[in-house]
Amino acid sequence: MKFFSQDWLGYSDQKNLADELATCDLIFSIDADEALSDQLKKSIKTLKDNDIAENEVFAMNRLNNYCGQWVKGCGLYPETKIRIWQRGFAEWEGIIHEWLKYKETPKKTLLRGDLLHYSWDTPEAFRKQQFHFAELGAQSYYERGKKTGILPWIFSPSINFIRTYIIKGGFLYGKTGFSICRVMMQANRHKYNLLREKIKEKQ
User: Lower Cβ count inside 10 Å, N or C end of the chain?
Assistant: First the structure.
């Protein structure tokens, strides 16, 4: 096993560098705050016995832990992530919520079991992350030339809350669900506020 140290390059560049350093045929991309459920471990082990085509990629459902509680509501689950693919077949893109760009159309397979995400120890940590992502999201929208009208600016946060709290089952988690959905709504508002400010500064 080898360990490498690298100053932070950004989400996509950091992961692409790690992929380039890999020497095995398959890439398994996992973050420091993630772990494998027993069922997911078994699913991954079975891949060793199969012939895997170059365009095959493997996804898994990510289960988030909020302050010691596993949350399947609030739009936080299943949060399906593609994390296994043939080395050289894909690369990361995007400054936030990075995604994979493939050499050709992939054949996707969902593995059984969950990727356990130990993400937020405190409500403050969750809020800080959501607002940080909102700031990165506003910058990404701005760089891509995306604009926001008055209606999305007004209604998007409320729609976000309705979707996560009611449609996605946040209400099933009591005060915890309400707190999660409210913070996500506030972060959504923050993103659009920042985007509007950046557009006004350019005019």
Answer: N
